[in-house]
Design goal:
This protein has 472 residues and is of the alpha/beta class. The protein has 17 helices and twelve strands. The longest helix has 36 residues. Bound molecules: pyridoxal-5'-phosphate.
Length: 472
Amino acid sequence: MSFLSDSRIVSRALDRFVRDSVRRRARVVTQPPIESLVAALDLDGHARHGGLTGRRLAAFLDQYLAAATRLHHPGYMSHQVAVPHPAGALASLVDGLTNNAMAIYEMGPSAAAIEFWVLNWMIDKVGWTPTPFPRDAESAPPHAGGVLTHGGSLANLTALLAARSAVAPEAWERGTPTDLALLAPSESHYSVARAAGILGLGSAAIYSLDVDSAGRIIPDRITACLRKVRADNRRPMALVANACSTVLGLYDRLREVGTICREQGLWLHVDGAHGASALLSTRYRSLLDGVELADSLVWDAHKLMRTPTLCAAVLLRDARHLDGAFKQEASYLFHDKAQPGVDFIHRTVECTKAGLGLRFYAVLAALGEKGLSDYIERQFALARDAHAYISGLPDFESPFPPEANILCFRICTSDAAQLTARDALIAEGSFHLSTAEVRGRRCLRAAFMNPDTSMDDVRRMIERVRDFSRNP
Ligand SMILES: Cc1ncc(COP(=O)(O)O)c(C=O)c1O
């Protein structure tokens, strides 16, 4: 196998894949039955005989890409996964081949330096005090800190572990106390409830915060919820706010929520996995007004920052709480050594960790902050335009004006018709939408991730939904 000639084969195939996708020359999704894919890819044969290189590699890639979901297709409007910038994909290649498992500095100084820089760049956007270089750490005042992790779900878990260590420092040795409570709106991403499960809190420890008709926390009702927690003889561990929520993409009012949390001495965790990227935009930054009041924030680069999967940041206003989240012994990793950099391993669930910062940094450095901010503003504006258009149609409804790039809407028929239309669009290969239940009714859901999706695409998509609901 020659790395250079095979990588040329791979880049040519990928270049064609992206161009065909952008020009809508292929279906956005193709879902052959899995048994036919296993056969078409000759998975048994290649595994048995080896030698997947050169022409065989080219043929294999053609098969592979034929059933790859085309995020670069402008009809891709479904899940909150970045349409990756090629610079980020190249960074993934560099990371893949160097394989610098950089959770300890000696396993990837460049990758660790980039992670350190990326975290501080994010911390600066939040408005917190950046982490000093280790050489200045002793004389430095308390500061923020963070770590990059493999996804927002793991990031939420890590942040809540830090919250637990602040509220119940004895938990690591003695186990999670049975009297802790987590306050969260029902709109929270399911990874929050999962984190509570993994932490051993139990689902009974999750108190649902009162929300308005759009699912946003009602700040005035937080103290009533806290009273209930305390009446149940529980200690509040953290309150989770959304920035933004997964289904509707709406932001909790962080300043009001954060002020109450400060008054009550309550840990505020902001799940900004999707929406924290609005911090880059002067136009939309106000959606996160008050975020600096949070104790922890999760921010995914692999959602709204064109970064290939995965790159999620856990950011803490006071870095010491993140250092308290985990305690472990491993004589082969944790020992005295010359340390010209920083180890992140103390702050992560992972032991082996990819150089996640590089894939985001490559995108940032290719587009520049302005380019990234323009992209975010464009996608948010598209959601607003789509909402205005759909709201004006007599046979559609979209009751919740979007704040981010996510829009839920429905054709005014049955719940089943929404699912039928979605399946038909996917089968046709023209558009890929997701779907969600909003206030008990099935909706279609568009997440405008693709920088090539335009209002023309939205209009065509609506026409097809209408066609399919008339002639299923
Ligand atoms: C608000 C929110 N938090 C967390 C997550 C989970 O992130 P990940 O998919 O990176 O694990 C999501 C995913 O969509 C999300 O929308």
